[in-house]
Specification:
This protein is an alpha+beta fold. The protein has a domain of 127 residues: Electron Transport, Fmn-binding Protein, Chain A (Pnp Oxidase, Chain A), CATH 2.30.110.10. Helix content is 27%, strand content 35%. It contains 5 helices and 10 strands, in the order H-H-E-E-E-E-E-H-E-H-E-E-E-E-H. The strands form 2 sheets. Strands 3-2-6-7-8-5-4 form a 7-stranded antiparallel β-sheet. Strands 1-9-10 form a 3-stranded antiparallel β-sheet, with no helix packed on it. A hairpin with a 2-residue loop joins strand 2 and strand 3. The longest helix is centred in the N-terminal third of the chain and has 19 residues.
Length: 199
């Protein structure tokens, strides 16, 4: 009798689990489903800076990650049909700028499709940058990496660019600019929230 009741309870739990599972996204390798899924990832906003026609040029990218510490190496993915991809292929150099909350307008400028992305008004003047740094450094970034291309691999529509880091510049810490679910976000530390709730 007890065994029968236990089995019935387990079947009921399984039915409840099925009822609770509701997939907002349920698809295979469809590009639109993948794009919608990736919108759920929250991350820092990154602008790749190059020189185009002798002027600083920026492009907001979503795919950036460190690769290893020895030697310091990072990876970015750049659409192969963009000006930025051409600049990187030509010069073998670029800078990665991780944006702060103060640079929302820079991200918007550098992500506008089909428009010029010159960032002359947003770079640190050359006189204030160490001479070893070759690429444009964006003012108010939380950290900037001056990079040299080590390897480029083509995957689908994008170039995967692996680069060694030649210089790192970071000013006094600022709050990072975040992006996820198709909008810009501000980070709040969970520990800080918990402390505020206790007060």
């Amino acid at each position: 009798m007890v065994d029968r009741e236990a089995r019935s309870a387990r079947r009921s739990e399984r039915r409840d689990d099925v009822g609770l599972t509701s997939w907002e996204l349920d698809g295979g390798s469809d590009a639109d489903v993948f794009r919608a899924a990736m919108r759920r990832m929250v991350g820092g906003v990154t602008v790749i800076a190059t020189r185009h026609a002798g002027r600083p040029w920026g492009m907001t990218v979503s795919a950036f990650t460190p690769v290893c510490m020895d030697p310091p190496t990072l990876l970015v993915c750049v659409n192969s049909r963009t000006v930025t991809a051409s600049d990187i292929s030509r010069d073998g150099r670029f800078a990665v700028n991780l944006l702060s909350e103060a640079q929302l307008h820079v991200s918007q400028l550098c992500s506008a499709a089909g428009s010029d992305k010159y960032v002359d008004d947003h770079v640190v003047p050359a006189a204030l940058i160490p001479s070893r740094v070759a690429m444009p450094i964006l003012r108010d970034s939380i950290v900037s990496f001056d990079c040299r291309v080590a390897e480029v691999r083509v995957v689908g529509s994008h170039n995967i660019v692996i680069a060694t880091i030649e210089s790192i510049l970071a000013p006094t810490a600022r709050g990072p600019l975040l992006y996820g679910e198709g909008k810009y976000l501000r980070g709040v530390g969970i520990d800080d929230l918990a402390a505020l709730e206790r007060v």
